[in-house]
DNA sequence: AATGTCATCAACCGCTCGCTC
DNA sequence: AGAGCGAGCGGTTGATGACAT
């Protein structure tokens, strides 16, 4: 389908120009992609409005910019969001909120648009299923104390499956993604509901406050690591909600007020540390997640179309250079 | 097989920010 | 100082494919 528009109010072009231009909207054609790629290759990025005028594309500068940044840019990474990326998104979003471009800066090759879509389609969906606001404390607690530790666990399981060390070997084990691992947040929703019940049973008015037994998260006894979909979290009753919530999850002591807190053991990824250092995700305990990330580029569904497009473009350039 | 519903993601829109003059 | 402009950001929409009925 093809749309045309006479006036783009945000294109910052004069009305006279807009009257003359029959601007295109909607999906980009291969020809348009080539034209944009060709122009950027010769003139560089930026100055999008003048680019749009000079390149002959009947698109707004904004449209050209978006197409380039989100799709045509050579280093744009496509395919499923990996576990490591999910973990990073959750953590960074907890720090910065909907600062998508800022979050995207920490996920090489991912665009703000992609991360935003991931958040809206995956995370917000589950907030809706939990019948709580995505910005509510209880939902944030669910992410922090349930989903994120679980992601860490899965990352470790994947690393262990690939040899348990930094993975530069290009094995498929690290390419496990949210979608294809047969695990999803639905399990966690059931777990969350259990927490609600138990929390309420213990006269806890705010069921967003809960604690997670450390033993639940060790790889040894993890039901997830043992290829079960159920999440073996144990929930401890809470006596002091505020204290419980504020207590750092990775301090030296793993007990407080006779309660047990989640704390990775020595062999686990130091998740707690990464809370203050997002970049630290990629260098903990001998698990080189950055390297894993690189490996995943080849494993998790990179879109062949992109490669083909660039191949075709390169071929076209060669032909042009040779005056073929 | 036809239709309806849902999930995903590319693209658009309106707004803000920052730079230049 | 402030107007004009380009670029970028975040929210939203619409097309499309997958899946369910």
UniProtKB/TrEMBL annotation:
InterPro entries: EOBI/EOBII-like_plant, Homeodomain-like_sf, Myb_dom, SANT/Myb. SUPFAM superfamilies: Homeodomain-like. PROSITE patterns: HTH_MYB, MYB_LIKE. It is found in: Nucleus. Residues 1-22 are annotated as: Disordered. GO terms for cellular component: nucleus. GO terms for molecular function: DNA-binding transcription factor activity; sequence-specific DNA binding. Keywords: DNA-binding, Nucleus, Repeat, Transcription, Transcription regulation. Transmembrane segments: none annotated. CDD domains: SANT (cd00167). Its main location: nucleus. Residues 20-76, 77-127 form the HTH myb-type domain. Residues 20-72, 73-123 form the Myb-like domain. PANTHER family: MYB TRANSCRIPTION FACTOR-RELATED (PTHR45675:SF1), MYB TRANSCRIPTION FACTOR-RELATED-RELATED (PTHR45675). This is DNA-binding transcription factor. It comes from Lithospermum erythrorhizon. The lineage of its organism: Eukaryota, Viridiplantae, Streptophyta, Embryophyta, Tracheophyta.
């Amino acid at each position: 389908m093809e749309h045309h528009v006479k006036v783009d109010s945000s294109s910052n072009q004069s009305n006279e120009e807009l009257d003359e231009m029959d601007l295109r909207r909607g999906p980009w054609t291969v020809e348009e992609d080539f034209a944009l790629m060709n122009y950027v290759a010769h003139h560089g990025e930026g100055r999008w409005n003048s680019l749009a005028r000079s390149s002959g594309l009947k698109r707004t500068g904004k449209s050209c910019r978006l197409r380039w940044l989100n799709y045509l840019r050579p280093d744009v990474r496509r395919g499923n969001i990996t576990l490591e990326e999910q973990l990073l998104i959750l953590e960074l979003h907890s720090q910065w909120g909907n600062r998508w471009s800022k979050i995207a800066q920490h996920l090489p090759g991912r665009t703000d648009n992609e991360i935003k879509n991931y958040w809206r389609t995956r995370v917000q969906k589950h907030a809706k299923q939990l019948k709580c606001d995505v910005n509510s404390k209880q939902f944030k607690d669910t992410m922090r104390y349930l989903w994120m530790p679980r992601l860490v666990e899965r990352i470790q399981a994947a690393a262990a499956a690939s040899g348990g060390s930094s993975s530069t070997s290009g094995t498929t084990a690290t390419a496990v993604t949210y979608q294809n691992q047969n695990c999803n947040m639905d399990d966690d929703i059931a777990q969350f509901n259990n927490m609600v019940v138990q929390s309420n049973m213990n006269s806890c008015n705010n069921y967003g406050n809960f604690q997670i037994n450390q033993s639940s998260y060790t790889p040894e006894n993890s039901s997830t690591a043992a290829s079960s979909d159920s999440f073996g979290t144990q929930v401890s009753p809470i006596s002091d909600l505020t204290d419980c919530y504020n207590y750092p999850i990775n301090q030296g002591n793993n007990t407080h007020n006779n309660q047990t807190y989640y704390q990775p053991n020595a062999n686990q990824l130091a998740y707690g540390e990464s809370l203050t250092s997002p970049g630290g995700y990629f260098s903990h305990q001998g698990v080189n997640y950055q390297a894993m990330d690189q490996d995943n580029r080849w494993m998790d569904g990179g879109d062949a179309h992109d490669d083909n497009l660039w191949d075709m473009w390169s071929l076209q350039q060669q032909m042009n250079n040779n005056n073929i």
